[in-house]
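Troubleshooting log. The previous run stalled partway through. Resubmitting the same two chains, unchanged.
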Amino acid sequence: MEKRVFFKGWMLPAMLVAPQLIISFIFFFYPSGQAIWNSLFLPDPFGLKTEFVGLDNFRFLLSDPYYLASFKTTIFFSTAVSVSSMAIGLYLAALADRLIKGAGVYQTLLIWPYAIAPAIAGVLWLFMFNGNIGLASYYLKALGYEWNHTLKGDQAMFLVILASSWGRISYNFLFFLAGLQAIPKSIIEAAAIDGASFWKRFGTIVIPLLSPITFFLLVVNIVYAFFDTFGVIHTITSGGPEQSTTILVYKVFSDGFVSQDLGSSAAQSVILLVLVGILTVIQFKYIERKVHY
Amino acid sequence: MLAFLKIKKIGGIKMKQLKALICSIALFAMFAGTAAQAKTEIQWWHAFGGRLGELLNEQVEKFNASQDKYTVVHTRKGNYSETLNAGIAAFRAGQHPNILMVFEVGTASLMAAKGAYVPMYQLMKDAGQKFNPKGFVSAVSGYYTTTDGKMLSMPYNSSTPVLWVNKDLMKKAGLDPEMDLSTWKKVGNALDAAKAKGIDMPFCTCWHSWVHLENFSAYHNIPFATKANGFAGLDTELAFNSPVHIKHIQTLGKWAQEGKFKYMGRRNEAGKNFRAGECMLMTESSAGYAGIKKQAKFEFGIRHLPYYGATEAPQNTIIGGSSLWALSGKSKEENKATAAFLAFLSTTDIQAKWHQDTGYLGVTTAAAKKTKSSGFYKKNPGTDLAGIQMMRNKVTQNSKGLRLGSFDQIRGIIDEEMEGVYSGKKTAQVALDSAVRRGNVLLRRFERANK
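Second attempt completed without errors. Output:
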């Protein structure tokens, strides 16, 4: 049953949707339009002259094997960040939900890292794993493990995933905890009386009831891993070594703001725009169907 | 004007009194403002922190105190690349400083951006400043001068790579700290001995591309890029994948695999390890001197950059460092201030002090002479090596310097590919071929954007 409200005339409804439309226009349509327009030009860094090049910026990008490799890097990175931060968040939430004493203290401490800006978090982890002064790298060396993320791509990847997931664990924890506390105790108790074990209850009652939150977090975390992690990557690895931690958004940033190649950067933004569009459609068309509200 | 102050009483002060107070402050500020107005203020964006930042600040303070017409305000904008990018972004927004420090790698980008800067010779002429471009050491000023002899920017800090030696670690490795380290072969032998004695970091280096490809090319008199390393035209192509280059990079890769060479990062990160006394031999800019002299708790030595004995005696090395560009779109009065400040920086006293404090080259002949006659080189052995190494031979097409567009990005590519060699994923041949190919794409793109 859908509820419908009918307005007389069009003035009032137009005014009611106007704020949203204006915001969408200023912060979405106008910049995207600019990006699409700029992607067709090759300007010099100082903005003194510019040349129309058609689709050459796209051709330039798609013939660059490192650009194609950064798609793979992005998928691996986003999956790792989303899955690890959600799994750990859920685990901690399940533990905190069972606490009777001192729950507030644990919860506050677990939420803390969320308050730290990504770039600062990056610097923190970088200090710990720094080859010269890092504590973690010092102890790893004492254990006989050579740590040098400036040279070893897999170590660099591990470090940026760690630093990016760390703050997200808090965020996911918060939502999972709220979700767990919203599940009526009576259902769980009834299942327990029927003899269902903890894992049985968790798998058949808790997980399905958490699915709307899990879906929401999945979307939010993937968006985060795609777009908000470049501060972490910039401070820790600058996309290196050998571009092994260059994700798509970092490449947009580094080509545009570091290398001043605005044509290529705009073209990458357009590609990213299309990609995120497709991703969103997939998420809502296929995954959302499996979610019970 | 004070209508927004609706509060009747603040901490015991009546509203009336407060108004009177604010009025008097405003009046005072107005007069102080007119006094300050008489001085022309100009902005200088640079990349120096730490010890170099202190020395730079000293120069600015000296200038501000030396006259009462102009005030220079300096701001650090991050490392070299960040400073250049901040300058370019500010230029697009019309918020750029009067003077921008641009490292040698960005020179071609600025030169191509005609209209973004006031050429140095023009600036000095317009301001009526006495300025003699011939007073600069030609190996330095050549980098910033057009082919028809017009100087576009003012050389500020110029250095060249040398070999730094930790003499204490040499002794620990059972080596004579004064041993001959003039060729890479001899360096290799020393590293073998050090590794055998359990020295953790026998060799490290800063600025990989600059030392081991750019200077390497000039030193061995082989081209880094065609068209006289880009001096003769935008249609230049990279050429640093010759057998000699490959041999050297392969050697570095082998040392990395054997644990004799430790990679610490793309810029000057390894300097920390050397200053901390962990690294035995380091190739780094001669300007590492300021930090090493201040921090090293061991005996250190400076040597010429090693070369391959197979070729004839080495040519000369080229500079790294920065020059100062006067950006366009500023008032006549401000340009005058800029000219006065830059002329002040090129005076002999300032240059000689800068050279002695930092290890950067004395960029004017007069400063070099003054330093020599003061007996500084005798007291600080090795500090004259960089100058000798740069000017030991008549400069050739291959050893004049580099003028390549998008070169900061190309260096990034070179760094990436060299990381592949050090980690053992790629051979030097594959990595350098790939760097040349990828770099050429950027050169063509730059050529197209700056036709």
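Takeaways: Chain B is about 50% helix and 15% strand. The first helix of chain B runs from residue 15 to 37.
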